[in-house]
Specification:
It is built from seven helices and nine strands; from the N terminus they run E-E-E-H-E-H-E-H-E-H-E-E-H-H-E-H. It is of the alpha/beta class and 200 residues long. It has a single domain, classed as Spore Coat Polysaccharide Biosynthesis Protein SpsA, Chain A (Alpha-Beta Complex). It has a seven-stranded mixed sheet with strand order 5-4-1-6-8-7-9, sandwiched between helices. Strands 2-3 form a two-stranded antiparallel sheet. Helix 3 crosses helix 5. The protein is globular and about 40 Å long. Bound molecules: guanosine-5'-diphosphate and magnesium ion. Magnesium ion binds next to loops.
Amino acid sequence: MTNINSENVSGIILAGGKARRMGGQDKGLIEINGQMMISYIISTLRPQVAEILINANRNEKKYAQFGYPVFSDLLSDFQGPLAGFAAAIDKVTTRYICTCPCDGPLIPDDLVARLYAALQDQSAEICVAHDGNRIQPVYALIDCKLQTSLKKYLNSGERKIDRWYAQHKYVQVDFSDKKDSFINVNTPEDQITLSNLLMH
Ligand SMILES: Nc1nc2c(ncn2[C@@H]2O[C@H](COP(=O)(O)OP(=O)(O)O)[C@@H](O)[C@H]2O)c(=O)[nH]1
Ligand SMILES: [Mg+2]
């Protein structure tokens, strides 16, 4: 699949969580076999998008070392990924954002192309990856024209991502052929499991 539409899409790496299950260590910065998780993501995402931006609420200087803009949530106190989405849409000039979590280092190299194709085919406003077992809500391509709706939703006190998606033209995109691409590292045990997997 080609990346002919990449100029319309900004890649947003979501590194704005508390990482409670990782003992509060900033997950994007932890290493898997000597390489920081965010750096795996940047390598695979960079060719798929017009620009990369990093959404972080801590360690901004460390994230800035990768050479991409770093921005924090609009809302304080870790209100969830939608707060990061709203801040991202305020920053970008592209028509779409494609979000990825900082704790999923194996993202598909055709993530944006496949989400974008589905968005066009089905005239959708939001496309989200499905790995065959479950929906992966933070791997999403979102039309920036939804910013008004998103801010209204957040201002009303709502935080649930799925409920906001459900208010819009929303489609799930099948990535069951690439299930392992969505491996998620939430705990020190997950970190060891993935290191072992990549070494074999
Ligand atoms: N911007 C922002 N991102 C968040 C917040 N909370 C979680 N995230 C991001 O959302 C993604 C999923 O969070 P995580 O805690 O790993 O949830 P889980 O893997 O679905 O159980 C990660 O990329 C986090 O960095 C938040 O308050 N603000
Ligand atoms: Mg996670």
